[in-house]
Amino acid sequence: MADICHAIGKFFRAALDFRSFYTGCCAGMADKSGPLFPFARVTACSCKSGGCYLPVRAANIAGMALVETSICDFGRKAGDFTLRGVDGRDWSLQDCRGEKGTLVMFICNHCPYVQAVRERLVRDTAELRQHGVHSVAIMSNDAQNYPEDSFENMAREAKEHGFPFPYLYDETQEVARAYGAVCTPDFFGFNAALELQYRGRLDEARLDPPAPGTRRDLFEAMVQVAETAQGPREQFASAGCSIKWRR
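RESULT FIELD:
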Protein backbone atom coordinates (compact mmCIF):
# COMPACT_ATOMS: atom_id res chain seq x y z
CA MET A 1 0.00 0.00 0.00
CA ALA A 2 2.85 2.39 0.77
CA ASP A 3 4.24 1.85 -2.74
CA ILE A 4 0.83 2.68 -4.19
CA CYS A 5 0.65 5.89 -2.16
CA HIS A 6 4.09 6.94 -3.34
CA ALA A 7 3.14 6.17 -6.94
CA ILE A 8 -0.01 8.26 -6.67
CA GLY A 9 1.99 11.09 -5.15
CA LYS A 10 4.53 10.97 -7.98
CA PHE A 11 1.74 11.05 -10.56
CA PHE A 12 0.11 14.14 -9.07
CA ARG A 13 3.42 15.93 -8.61
CA ALA A 14 3.87 15.65 -12.36
CA ALA A 15 0.25 16.30 -13.33
CA LEU A 16 -0.79 19.23 -11.11
CA ASP A 17 0.40 22.80 -10.83
CA PHE A 18 2.48 23.30 -7.66
CA ARG A 19 2.15 27.07 -7.66
CA SER A 20 -0.81 26.98 -5.29
CA PHE A 21 -0.24 24.14 -2.87
CA TYR A 22 2.20 22.19 -0.77
CA THR A 23 2.52 18.53 -0.01
CA GLY A 24 2.67 16.94 3.39
CA CYS A 25 3.15 13.64 5.10
CA CYS A 26 -0.37 12.29 4.86
CA ALA A 27 0.03 10.21 8.00
CA GLY A 28 1.50 13.04 10.06
CA MET A 29 -0.21 16.22 8.93
CA ALA A 30 -0.84 18.57 11.83
CA ASP A 31 -3.97 20.60 12.46
CA LYS A 32 -1.95 23.57 13.65
CA SER A 33 0.44 25.92 11.92
CA GLY A 34 1.58 29.50 11.81
CA PRO A 35 -0.91 32.35 11.96
CA LEU A 36 -0.66 33.15 8.25
CA PHE A 37 -0.95 29.60 6.96
CA PRO A 38 -3.52 27.54 8.90
CA PHE A 39 -3.43 23.80 8.24
CA ALA A 40 -6.48 21.55 8.21
CA ARG A 41 -6.27 18.14 9.84
CA VAL A 42 -5.56 15.39 7.33
CA THR A 43 -6.76 11.84 7.90
CA ALA A 44 -3.98 9.27 8.18
CA CYS A 45 -3.26 7.25 5.08
CA SER A 46 -4.72 3.74 5.09
CA CYS A 47 -1.28 2.20 4.71
CA LYS A 48 -0.41 3.38 8.29
CA SER A 49 3.26 3.46 7.36
CA GLY A 50 3.82 7.09 8.28
CA GLY A 51 5.97 7.40 5.17
CA CYS A 52 3.55 8.52 2.45
CA TYR A 53 3.96 11.88 0.79
CA LEU A 54 0.85 12.70 -1.22
CA PRO A 55 0.35 16.16 -2.67
CA VAL A 56 -2.42 17.71 -0.65
CA ARG A 57 -4.62 18.05 -3.72
CA ALA A 58 -4.08 14.34 -4.35
CA ALA A 59 -4.88 13.74 -0.69
CA ASN A 60 -8.11 15.61 -1.19
CA ILE A 61 -8.98 13.35 -4.10
CA ALA A 62 -8.33 10.41 -1.78
CA GLY A 63 -10.89 11.85 0.67
CA MET A 64 -8.47 13.95 2.72
CA ALA A 65 -8.53 17.68 3.43
CA LEU A 66 -7.32 20.11 0.78
CA VAL A 67 -4.55 22.44 1.97
CA GLU A 68 -3.52 25.45 -0.08
CA THR A 69 -1.13 28.21 1.00
CA SER A 70 -0.03 31.48 -0.53
CA ILE A 71 3.53 31.62 -1.76
CA CYS A 72 5.18 34.95 -0.96
CA ASP A 73 3.96 37.83 1.17
CA PHE A 74 6.28 40.37 -0.45
CA GLY A 75 7.75 42.90 1.94
CA ARG A 76 6.91 41.04 5.13
CA LYS A 77 9.67 41.67 7.67
CA ALA A 78 11.77 38.83 9.04
CA GLY A 79 11.02 37.98 12.65
CA ASP A 80 13.87 38.10 15.12
CA PHE A 81 14.95 35.02 17.06
CA THR A 82 17.70 33.67 19.26
CA LEU A 83 18.20 29.91 19.05
CA ARG A 84 20.85 27.40 20.07
CA GLY A 85 22.95 26.06 17.23
CA VAL A 86 24.54 22.64 16.93
CA ASP A 87 27.90 24.38 17.33
CA GLY A 88 26.93 25.18 20.93
CA ARG A 89 26.43 28.93 20.54
CA ASP A 90 23.27 31.02 20.42
CA TRP A 91 22.42 32.64 17.09
CA SER A 92 20.17 35.64 16.51
CA LEU A 93 18.75 36.80 13.20
CA GLN A 94 21.33 39.59 13.17
CA ASP A 95 24.12 37.02 13.58
CA CYS A 96 22.81 35.15 10.52
CA ARG A 97 22.09 38.20 8.38
CA GLY A 98 23.87 38.68 5.05
CA GLU A 99 24.96 42.00 3.59
CA LYS A 100 22.72 41.58 0.53
CA GLY A 101 20.20 39.00 1.68
CA THR A 102 19.27 36.36 4.21
CA LEU A 103 17.80 32.92 3.60
CA VAL A 104 15.89 31.35 6.49
CA MET A 105 15.20 27.66 5.93
CA PHE A 106 13.03 25.28 7.93
CA ILE A 107 14.39 21.76 7.52
CA CYS A 108 14.77 18.58 9.56
CA ASN A 109 16.75 15.35 9.51
CA HIS A 110 14.15 12.68 8.77
CA CYS A 111 12.07 14.18 5.95
CA PRO A 112 12.71 12.51 2.55
CA TYR A 113 12.07 15.82 0.82
CA VAL A 114 14.95 17.40 2.73
CA GLN A 115 17.18 14.37 2.31
CA ALA A 116 16.61 14.44 -1.44
CA VAL A 117 17.89 18.02 -1.79
CA ARG A 118 20.56 18.09 0.93
CA GLU A 119 23.58 18.14 -1.40
CA ARG A 120 22.00 20.79 -3.62
CA LEU A 121 21.11 22.84 -0.55
CA VAL A 122 24.73 22.75 0.64
CA ARG A 123 25.95 23.70 -2.84
CA ASP A 124 23.49 26.56 -3.34
CA THR A 125 23.89 28.13 0.10
CA ALA A 126 27.69 28.00 -0.22
CA GLU A 127 27.51 29.72 -3.62
CA LEU A 128 25.04 32.32 -2.34
CA ARG A 129 27.59 33.51 0.21
CA GLN A 130 29.68 34.72 -2.73
CA HIS A 131 26.75 37.01 -3.59
CA GLY A 132 26.44 38.39 -0.06
CA VAL A 133 23.50 36.17 0.89
CA HIS A 134 23.86 34.25 4.16
CA SER A 135 21.69 31.30 5.17
CA VAL A 136 20.43 29.72 8.36
CA ALA A 137 18.54 26.45 8.88
CA ILE A 138 16.02 25.94 11.67
CA MET A 139 14.66 22.61 12.91
CA SER A 140 11.25 23.01 14.57
CA ASN A 141 9.85 19.47 14.64
CA ASP A 142 8.69 17.73 17.80
CA ALA A 143 11.88 15.79 18.52
CA GLN A 144 10.29 13.82 21.33
CA ASN A 145 7.97 12.04 18.91
CA TYR A 146 10.46 12.18 16.03
CA PRO A 147 13.79 11.26 17.65
CA GLU A 148 15.63 11.35 14.32
CA ASP A 149 15.25 15.12 14.63
CA SER A 150 16.87 15.35 18.08
CA PHE A 151 19.50 18.01 18.78
CA GLU A 152 22.20 15.32 18.89
CA ASN A 153 21.15 14.02 15.47
CA MET A 154 21.03 17.57 14.15
CA ALA A 155 24.67 18.00 15.13
CA ARG A 156 25.56 14.71 13.44
CA GLU A 157 23.68 15.71 10.30
CA ALA A 158 25.39 19.09 10.06
CA LYS A 159 28.84 17.57 10.49
CA GLU A 160 28.26 14.63 8.16
CA HIS A 161 27.00 16.78 5.31
CA GLY A 162 29.17 19.84 5.90
CA PHE A 163 26.42 22.40 6.37
CA PRO A 164 27.86 25.83 5.45
CA PHE A 165 25.20 27.55 7.57
CA PRO A 166 24.13 27.56 11.25
CA TYR A 167 21.70 24.76 12.11
CA LEU A 168 19.43 25.87 14.95
CA TYR A 169 16.92 24.12 17.22
CA ASP A 170 13.53 25.78 17.63
CA GLU A 171 12.56 23.69 20.65
CA THR A 172 9.46 25.72 21.56
CA GLN A 173 8.33 25.89 17.90
CA GLU A 174 7.66 29.60 18.41
CA VAL A 175 9.90 30.67 15.53
CA ALA A 176 8.23 28.32 13.06
CA ARG A 177 4.82 29.62 14.11
CA ALA A 178 5.94 33.25 13.88
CA TYR A 179 7.27 32.73 10.36
CA GLY A 180 4.28 30.67 9.30
CA ALA A 181 6.42 27.69 8.30
CA VAL A 182 4.33 24.72 7.20
CA CYS A 183 6.64 22.07 5.78
CA THR A 184 10.21 20.87 5.41
CA PRO A 185 11.87 22.28 3.47
CA ASP A 186 10.29 25.73 3.66
CA PHE A 187 12.36 28.66 2.38
CA PHE A 188 12.05 32.35 3.28
CA GLY A 189 14.33 34.61 1.26
CA PHE A 190 14.81 38.18 2.51
CA ASN A 191 16.59 41.15 0.94
CA ALA A 192 19.18 43.33 2.68
CA ALA A 193 16.38 45.19 4.49
CA LEU A 194 15.01 41.86 5.77
CA GLU A 195 11.90 42.13 3.58
CA LEU A 196 10.51 38.86 2.25
CA GLN A 197 11.12 38.41 -1.48
CA TYR A 198 11.11 34.63 -2.01
CA ARG A 199 8.92 31.81 -0.71
CA GLY A 200 9.26 28.88 -3.07
CA ARG A 201 10.96 25.66 -4.01
CA LEU A 202 14.68 24.89 -4.15
CA ASP A 203 14.55 23.79 -7.77
CA GLU A 204 12.33 22.07 -10.31
CA ALA A 205 13.87 18.62 -9.73
CA ARG A 206 12.33 18.23 -6.24
CA LEU A 207 12.74 14.56 -5.22
CA ASP A 208 14.40 13.49 -8.45
CA PRO A 209 18.11 13.81 -9.24
CA PRO A 210 18.48 17.06 -11.19
CA ALA A 211 18.98 16.71 -14.92
CA PRO A 212 21.50 18.92 -16.72
CA GLY A 213 20.04 22.39 -17.07
CA THR A 214 17.57 21.99 -14.19
CA ARG A 215 16.32 25.38 -13.11
CA ARG A 216 17.72 26.41 -9.71
CA ASP A 217 14.76 28.48 -8.56
CA LEU A 218 15.95 29.46 -5.09
CA PHE A 219 19.54 30.19 -6.11
CA GLU A 220 18.51 32.29 -9.09
CA ALA A 221 15.89 34.13 -7.06
CA MET A 222 18.29 35.00 -4.23
CA VAL A 223 20.96 36.19 -6.66
CA GLN A 224 18.31 38.46 -8.14
CA VAL A 225 17.38 39.64 -4.63
CA ALA A 226 21.05 40.38 -3.89
CA GLU A 227 21.36 42.43 -7.07
CA THR A 228 18.00 44.23 -7.15
CA ALA A 229 16.43 43.76 -3.66
CA GLN A 230 13.41 42.32 -5.48
CA GLY A 231 12.43 38.67 -5.89
CA PRO A 232 10.79 37.12 -8.96
CA ARG A 233 7.03 37.51 -9.14
CA GLU A 234 6.50 33.99 -10.45
CA GLN A 235 7.34 31.44 -7.77
CA PHE A 236 6.52 27.77 -7.29
CA ALA A 237 5.63 26.47 -3.85
CA SER A 238 8.02 24.29 -1.91
CA ALA A 239 6.87 20.75 -1.13
CA GLY A 240 7.59 18.49 1.81
CA CYS A 241 6.52 16.87 5.04
CA SER A 242 4.43 18.95 7.41
CA ILE A 243 6.05 20.54 10.43
CA LYS A 244 5.56 18.07 13.27
CA TRP A 245 3.75 20.19 15.86
CA ARG A 246 3.46 19.17 19.47
CA ARG A 247 -0.02 17.93 20.37
